[in-house]
Amino acid sequence: QVQLVESGGGLVQAGESLRLSCAASGNIFRIQTMGWYRQAPGEPRELVATMTVGGATNYADSVKGRFTISGDNARKSVYLRMNNLKPEDTAVYYCLGRSLFGMEYWGKGTLVTVSS
To answer: Per-residue pLDDT tens for 30-43?
Structure first.
């Protein structure tokens, strides 16, 4: 089993920055992709950014140029640097770990609130 724990959420004003962190524990050797999804109230969960162990990244169009995903393969940690935050970025941010065979593991989420 894999456990994921997020940290770094909070309340910021529009234009400010935050850095989210996610640490994996357990059978971390299974994880091939890590990333971030988010869910705003009343909305479905959506992709923010992902990164493979090979370093390939994928970003949602809405965050390109503002958010940067990075990671530590050895420790199976992933980070999300969020710059120029907007009120529409307000959501619960979830850390994802995905195995080579598609098994997904999720953290409990961390709340990011951006005030205008």
So the answer is: 889 999 999 999 99
